[in-house]
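WARN  no MSA supplied for this record, continuing single-sequence
INFO  ligand: S-adenosylmethionine
INFO  echoing inputs
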Amino acid sequence: MDFTFVTLFPNLVNPYFEDSILLRAKKSGAVRIDCVNPRDFSLDKHKKVDDYKAGGGAGLLMSAQPLWDAFKSIGEEAYFIFPSPAGKSFSQNDAKRLSKKKHIVFVCGRYEGIDERVVETYADEVFSIGDFVLTGGELASLCMCDAISRMVENVLGNEESLLEESFENTLLEAPSFTKPNVCDGLSIPSDFLKGNHAIISGLKNRMAHAKTYFHRPDLYKIVKNKRNYYAK
Ligand code: SAM
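INFO  complex generated
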């Protein structure tokens, strides 16, 4: 799968793919990463890529021309995602759905954002990664790219780990434990140590429900409604 980051700061993006799982994915060809810098497409003699807001207001905006031309160089058939605090919330279901695309372009905003005409013309989807404001779209795009890449075939060592993860079946993942069995006087719940997989799986399911009920009552409501729907 191909990912292109349209960014004024490729040095913020590239190092993320120089270690761990995503480096392996890049080396194996499961994902390809590319950065395109709109500054390279600016027709301004000083390579300017920003300007004052029409009608006034604080801060600068990324101008349309360098972005239009950068997009043309990428190919307009790719799927364009614009990170923005004004977008819809990015979720695990979005990551799963988008992992089926061939080529995703993340358009990383800077300054006070991007001339809205660019967003209107090019955005296939606009996503927020939370109700807070970052200095630029690179981190938000990396978060989305990471979550999407994990769903791409041959990226994770053990794809079974995806099946029990948080948000599968709308639940949070059950608490997990590792050795030693007793740590600072705290024991692993004894059922985990008895080797009975049916009991362990039942326990994990109950713990996943309890954890979701406690930490994410909003998700738990969906779980309950689903159950009611199937019970009808
Ligand atoms: N003036 C904009 C506003 O109030 O909505 C904020 C612009 S922000 C300083 C610059 C860029 O960071 C945005 O264009 C976007 O690409 C990115 N960004 C900031 N916060 C984000 C968030 N919560 N989710 C996704 N992208 C975000």
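The first helix runs from residue 10 to 13.
INFO  checksum written, moving to next record
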